[in-house]
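Journal club prep — side note

Before the paper discussion, L.F. wants everyone to see what a predicted structure for a comparable chain looks like in token form. Sequence:
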Amino acid sequence: MQTQDRLTQKQPLSLKDAITASQNYLLSLQYPQGYWWAELESNITLTAETVLLHKIWGTDKTRPLHKVEAYLRQQQREHGGWELFYGDGGEISTSVEAYMALRLLGVPQDDPALIRAKDFIISKGGISKTRIFTKFHLALIGCYDWKGIPSIPPWIMLFPDSFPFTIYEMASWARESTVPLIIVFNDKPVFSVDPVFNLDELYAEGVENVKYELPKNNNWGDIFLGIDQVFKFAEQVDLVPFRKEGLKAAEKWILNHQQETGDWGGIMPPMLNSLLAFRTLNYDVNDPSVKLGFEAIDRFSIEEDDTYRLQACVSPIWDTAWCVRALTDSGLEKDHFSLVKAGKWLLDKQVMEYGDWAVKNKAGKPGGWAFEFTNRFYPDLDDSATVVMALNGIKLPDEARKQAAINRCLQWIETMQCKEGGWAAFDLNNDQAWLNEVPYGDLKAMIDPNTADVTARVVEMLGSCDLEIESDRLNKSLNYLYKEQEKDGSWFGRWGVNYIYGTSGVLSALAVINPEKHKTQMEQGINWLLSCQNKDGGWGETCRSYNDPSLKGKGVSTPSQTAWSLIGLLDAGEALNKFETDAIERGVNYLLDTQTEEGTWEESEFTGTGFPCHFYIRYHFYRHYFPLIALGRYQNLSSEFGVRS
């Protein structure tokens, strides 16, 4: 179980004492095995969907689901709805799923919390305005009609690798979620649950007036609406070609992709969907694959005295690598026993098996790192580059083993470069953008193209660790970063919120690869960061900047986003031998002034990104290690600044 402490305010310390306090706090959180690991907080939907899953399987009495009610009530806001991210004003799909879960838990329709929720949901257009996946979960219990859910033809499982489209053109997360849904969408099951209820009260137009149809985008993508009608007709007249073969291939794929830890892809949506597929196929609740799957979900749960909730994922490798970097950047000895323990743990976690990435990458050998404790199918580039930098910064008893692991990872990373010159999160050339237009893909997250932030991480790894790849590949990656720079000098952040994250990362990358060559690009990035510093000295950016670019770089100051800005400005300033002293010192003072008594920082805002515009994450360690990195790098350059004594 992981819990976030509520911390108290204190008088600001000197820089040295603040760093020591932060280091001690981080060191106190290290697990005996050597890793660090904190909660990944998201919205309530995965918890709500887990309640639904247990109700469908009849396993709801074997978990403390009664505590979910307290959690959902705690998360409801004054307006009656539930949020995608902190302070967003409420979101309709999230709110409908919370309402559904409370009804599944036996809360009556006339409960004051549900009355307020109903008013909020109706004001936003009701169930008919929710996302496809919300409607899908409602359809499973008869609260929405399957006619309004898109079809997924099973025969897509049978396409050969040489075909223009296969399931491997979907992003890893979309692929892992879609394959089990092929089975569920084929059968269109409606499961009986206890208590029995409907959600007719949540249809703004009245349940008798609902049009169970897929929403139009009013662009070329609407052609898929017609194609979906063809698929549905083929289903009705039982003329779906290779239906049985496709379903069998999907079942086999799910079984083969279940990890020894019981999960699929290391993330909750495929875990939930795979267990729904097993239920649709009438697997026994005691089947080994089913039991392993539920045990994996249990490990993603957080139970406290009164509440129970689910995480979207777990992040021990990511957290550990960044904690190591923070401690070394802030002056901890490279052979400190805590760093040695962490380094050994990270070495043991290197992925040495071929995963899904090998379907399109025929040249690479495995050698990356994943995000979770175990994820042999999906190591990722961002984690791998970060782990390499963490290992490079410490001294281990077996340096030869460490260097061999770094070299093996470098070879894998080099072969994962996309044709545009950048790197993606999990796959190679996963860029068929038309997939985001299919009705099923209404989260617009069906592909995993190369991005500036992941590319920057790889380039920073190359420069900071003195590693080499083919010069043509390096130049191609730099040209990609040039191309991705916005007119105002910023870079988009795919995996962190948002332009502050992207801009900081690229500045740190360009700073360690012949920086004079990139002086113009770096100065433009620096000027953009300066333009969005808040009056209190910090930086912040709302998740809404993904929907509205006019909000880029705007938001209440947060420790993590302030730290990112400082890291970018410090790295770029050192590379160009020109520091923006006033802005940097104001940012550092913001961190010193807001540090808590325990040596960390408070942060309610969500600064991590899952799917832009649709899914955000509050990494509970971001407010710990990124400020420490910023203060550590500032201390290392103390001769350039008037450091607070």
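L.F.'s comment for the group: The first strand starts at residue 40 and ends at 41. Keep this in mind when we get to the figures.
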